[in-house]
Automatic annotation (TrEMBL):
Residue ranges of domain VTC in the record: 24-243
Highest taxon, organism lineage: Bacteria
InterPro entries hit by this protein: CYTH-like_dom_sf, VTC_domain, VTC_sf
Biological process (GO), any one: polyphosphate biosynthetic process
Protein name: Polyphosphate polymerase domain-containing protein
UniProt cross-references to Gene3D superfamilies, sorted A to Z: VTC, catalytic tunnel domain
Pfam families the UniProt entry points to: VTC
Length: 273
């Protein structure tokens, strides 16, 4: 667990008001725990840590949806401009849940729209969720109304991801950084049931910087430590790693170099089967 003792706190309401950054430039890094803690400690005097009901570390669960042909995955793998990602995100400590549609705006900025959801529906698309997906895909310019309806009709759960997150706000820099630990990935089968083919990433944390445009102090600290942005998507990297037979494309270097031990585990399991 990351140590945030002594860092001033910020409430969720304040964070959403001051730095929601639903349209932003993201950079992601895979960082060992020791280097992660060093960054947090160095940022402490200028940062505020998100605290809710006395907690500073929060457990997240995300269920990702795709078509049976994995259209969203292949759009990301081929870096198509009009790509999308659809998931539910459940905040396990509070029970809050949202259906989220992420699309690409101008200059590769990520745009995220969310719709409040019942946690019991986290692994399915409800009728209201279906309409929300269509609306967001059309209004974002990602696809035509007919294409959006076809996608929404076909969506099924394909993968789960869980992790624990710590969030820092850097008010003077108009920036945020999240630090994800205890990352796990689990697949769904064609019948919509989770498979016993998961991977738990213990030796690396996912650090993500969220900035309006320019690099933040978090980025510069990570660069000084020798870390460079990694091509990692919790959805696409997890899918490529767990399936083993999907084209790894943009995530090949990350999987083979940073997540090689898990890649070999998956390959061994598939050979044994």
């Amino acid at each position: 667990m990351l140590n945030t003792d002594g860092i001033n706190t910020i409430t969720l309401t304040e964070l959403n008001s001051e730095a929601s950054l639903l349209t932003r430039m993201d950079r992601k890094y895979l960082v060992p725990p020791g280097d992660t803690q060093h960054v947090i400690s160095h940022l402490a005097p200028r940062a505020r840590v998100l605290q809710i009901d006395g907690l500073r570390h929060f457990r997240y669960a995300s269920t990702y949806f795709d078509t049976p042909g994995l259209d969203a995955y292949f759009l990301a793998a081929r870096k198509r401009r009009r790509r999308y990602k659809i998931r539910t995100r459940t905040y396990l400590d509070s029970g809050l849940c949202f259906l989220e549609v992420k699309t690409n705006g101008s200059r590769e900025a990520t745009v995220k729209d969310r719709f409040k959801y019942d946690p019991d529906d986290a692994d399915r698309i409800t009728p209201d969720g279906h309409l929300f997906v269509i609306e967001r895909l059309v209004e974002s310019g990602t696809c035509t109304p007919d294409e959006a309806r076809t996608i929404a009709d076909a969506l099924v759960p394909v993968m789960d991801s869980t992790y624990s997150r710590t969030t820092l706000h850097l008010p003077h820099d108009e920036a945020r950084a999240t630090f994800d630990t205890q990352l796990t990935w689990d697949l769904f089968g064609p019948d919509g049931k989770r498979l016993e083919r998961g991977v738990s990433v213990g030796h690396l944390n996912v650090v993500e910087t969220k900035n309006p445009s320019t690099a933040s102090p978090t980025d510069r600290l990570l660069w000084h430590q020798g870390h460079r942005p990694a091509r990692i998507s919790k959805y696409a990297t997890g899918m490529a790693l767990l399936h083993g037979k999907l084209p790894t494309n943009r995530w090949n270097r990350t999987i083979k170099r940073n997540l090689g031990r898990y890649w070999r585990q998956v390959q061994s399991r598939q050979l044994a089967a």
